[in-house]
Write a structure and sequence with these properties.
Layout (H helix, E strand, L loop, with lengths): L1 H17 L16 H8 L5 E6 L6 H13 L3 E6 L5 H6 L3 H5 L5 E6 L2 E5 L4 H12 L27 H9 L1
Length: 171
């Protein structure tokens, strides 16, 4: 009987090691990625390297978010770099100027020769950057001017379309 029980335990342990499973049991599904993000992760064809420049201990929930991305796509890898401990790499990526401006964290996504930097640590910002770095081809949006249209670059007045420009860029 003991050998039988030991055999079952070994089989269960082996299966749990080979077939990792996880689920989000929170009421608000706080650790579940959106359907759009899941679709983007599923469609990734090239490797994406994420380098997050955060002070040690300041990674917080962003680390959990990156873990979710790497869990759902084997093409995505990440690492954290402490800008104080690795100033050479920080300067190599051009993060030094942003760091000195007081931005608490910068994340760089790379795929092939494309590179995108983000300063927000949200799922939306990360997924948008992932789309930008993996997209083949470029999209062009044109805006008219000179006929009384509002300025697309105007962020100073309520009549400018700066927020519309940002929303289009995020899409």
């Amino acid at each position: 009987m003991t050998v039988f029980l030991l055999g079952i335990l070994i089989i269960v342990n082996y299966l749990s090691y080979r077939h990792h499973w996880r689920d989000d049991f929170t009421k608000t599904k706080a650790y579940t990625l959106s359907d759009e993000t899941m679709k983007v992760l599923k469609d990734i064809k090239d490797d994406v390297k994420i380098t997050a420049f955060y002070l040690e201990g300041a990674q917080g929930p962003f680390k959990d978010l990156l873990e979710s991305y790497t869990y759902h796509s084997k093409k995505v890898t990440y690492r954290f770099v402490d800008p104080d401990k690795d100033p050479t790499l920080t300067e190599q990526y051009g993060i030094g100027a942003l760091w000195k401006q007081g931005i608490p964290g910068v994340t760089v996504l790379e795929s092939g020769k494309k590179e995108v930097k983000i300063t927000e640590n949200t799922e939306e910002a990360l997924t948008n950057a992932l789309i930008k770095v993996t997209r083949v081809g470029t999209k062009v949006v044109c805006a008219l001017e000179g006929h009384g249209e509002k300025d697309i670059l105007d962020a100073q007045t309520v009549y400018g379309y700066d927020l519309a420009k940002k929303a289009l860029g995020d899409q």
